[in-house]
Specification:
The C terminus is likely disordered. Helix 5 crosses helix 7. The protein has 8 helices and 3 strands, in the order H-E-H-H-H-E-E-H-H-H-H. The protein starts with a helix and ends in an 8-residue tail after the last helix. By secondary structure, the chain is mainly alpha-helical.
Length: about 200
Amino acid sequence: EDAAALQARRDYLLRRTSEIKRRLAALRGLPFTQEVDQDVLTKAQLKEFLVAQIEKEYPGGKLKDLGRALEALDLVPPGFDLQGTMLGVLDEQIAGFYDPETGRLRLIDRPNLPEAGGVARDAMEHFVLAHELLHALQDQHFNLTEQHERREGNDDERLALTSLIEGEAVVGALDSLLYPGIYRTGWLIQASGTYGFTSRSK
């Protein structure tokens, strides 16, 4: 993909955020207090970012120690490439993310993303944008970094906090797909299946 095409795609994705922000603010009852810096990363740039994040999260050989512990418990085969596997999974799964340390929304450029489960690409991109923008809204009002730091050393509290943060973002993104005049409910059901959710009849 040439530079002009990549820039055009960046401009298109970034233009969509203003309307999604308006809907999220109305649904959540909280205004965005400032603009959200945004950028689009190529897959190569994403890999560089992920390598740096893994090294930050597991400094001083901690990831190798974790790998040896998993081997000792027979949870992975001998010589298992834990870092390579983590990078591979994250590289394929991440479509965008909000970084609370920098306050930036980063979208991953995937120009050849196919339709999954019959869901239009437009709806999938809307979901990703809404999910990550809601993280930005959470951060502006509740300071996500501070919330995590206050629970440093308590894994149960950190897990509960992460579940709350991610759960609200999922619900908010799905609610925004049902916002009047946006997408048909059938598309939402297909999207739920694509993202691993199951519907239950009342």
